[in-house]
Amino acid sequence: MKKYDKVTPEGTRDYLFRECKIRRGTENSLRKIFEDFGYDEVMTTSLEFYDVFSDGIGKMSQNELYTLTDGSGRLITMRPDSTKPIARLFASRLKEFVLPIKLFYSQPVFKRNVRFNKKFDEILQMGVELIGASGFRSDLEILILAIKCMKELFGSDFYLEIGHMGVITSVLNSFSNLKNEAKQALAIKNFPDIESLANQMGKDGAVLKTVSKLFGGKEILLEAKKELQDKEALLAIKEIEELYLALDNAGCAENIIFDFSVVQDVQYYTGLVFRGFVKGKGMEVMSGGRYDTLYSDYSLDIPAIGFAFNINETIDVLKKEKIETEKPKIVIYSSDKMVNPMSLEVVKQYIEKGYSFVSSICDTLEETITWAKAIKAKKIVIVENNKLEEREI
Amino acid sequence: MINIALTKGRLEKSTIKLLEASGIDCTELIDKGRKLIIEIDNKYRFVFAKAADVVTYVERGISDVGIVGKDTLMEMNRPVNEIAALPFGECKFALATIAGVNFYSGYGIKTIATKYPEVTKQFFENKNMPVDIIKIEGSVELAPLLDLADGIVDIVETGMTLKENGLVVAEYLADISARLISNPVSLKTKKAEIFDFCAKLTDPVV
Prior knowledge:
The structure holds 2 protein chains of 2 kinds. By secondary structure, chain A is α+β, with helices and mostly antiparallel strands. Chain A has helices spanning 17-36, 51-54, 83-94, 136-154, 165-172, 179-187, 191-200, 206-212, 219-227, 231-249, 311-321, 345-352, 365-374, and strands at residues 40-41, 47-49, 67-69, 75-78, 101-110, 122-131, 158-164, 215-216, 256-259, 272-278, 286-290, 304-310, 329-334, 356-359, 379-384, 387-392.
């Protein structure tokens, strides 16, 4: 007897009926926004050579990757992320295009997770890449696009957190040999560790403590300007302040929060970084930022910015909230086996009225009635000699 | 309202003592009977759970904050924020062996018994030293005495249990104490409440 022929591997699942509807619905609404903003779709291969992720700026940790070998024994990995593959795609096939290029994608990524933790190993990721543009205008566009998506999916029940890697980078400059430890402590906001690292650094360490608490509402902008002296850090904060003003002008600033101590899981961010949270959910559903050095893995000096939604986690929120009304079902049965009812003109009229038609392929009316009850149909329409008879169930 | 997960058992008494010292009325936490969820002052919703579950509830955002030992945090290595070190549950992670035996001598692969396989694995990986690790659920001191293992990795408070069983500490791995942890999203969305709770715990009104 086989043991694993009826279950799916941990971290994966099948989607059924309403789950598919919510998933496709989410996909469609994001796709529409991306297309409205003039972004073009690309699909990259699910299988990549391991070399794409093995080192450089876009390096991924080996124990997160699903790997296998190809027919020649070369190491292959299931795509763990879409940004690096799109950089690869750009480096090989889009290099000659006039910049900037606006792309979007909607495809699964594969990552190994800790077991027994309700995390997904196969995640549908939808996101955008704005390649070949740096500076204020591109940051603003991406933020507005991200906020529009969050609004579309969650109404006003969300937070968009923005920050800037420039603050941390300049603060950590003075931490020469403790840089990695400090970065790690900030990434997970481990305040006892931050405190002890700051103490180890003596006078220069105080700024680490200051910056670690620079998160919250818009009052943080003022506080950050007051508390920090570093020129580079202040420049970064000014950039964020300007973005905030522009977002406010666009009428989409009410859900913005700030974090100037942010260090993302993804290592390649260089400037603006942001994340989307939904009220009442303990995990982010979207994250993004600027990565102006990632393309240097391909010896290209191309700035880029983008974000991605974790559609699995997004659906997890929507599943609890949005209950879509399904179209009422009507079963249609033809007494003549030579006539398939779906080919009849009259069925079209019903479909236009908003019913979902299901044709019975049972041999008898009795069987049809039993089946119609099982699928919770509202009515049965019986076709006999080109005449229709409606019957309530 | 913030949701707080507290660790049952070893840390429970000291946790409640600290909460009391910070001016929170803990009568209901002490006489909780079989109740698992306790609301106080319409401000705090407490739950009691096993240490590892405290981390899980906080990681998933079911609880905004939790109080749990650093040992559990190190073993689980989950993305939760450590807000403060609390002044109780102090002990050390230690590698212990039978007195008089040099653990590091010889080329043979050593066997370690522990309740903390991840911490142990990390420790020896950092030393580039291959070892066999056996997961044990309790009374880890037995393992070297019965020749199941060459050494143990465990938390040591006073060292009395080790001494009584003829074991000695070969090396300390890390300092442990109770920690106030938070969910990373809650920290953002409930910053004031969480910092206020933290201030209460770390600056008790004596």
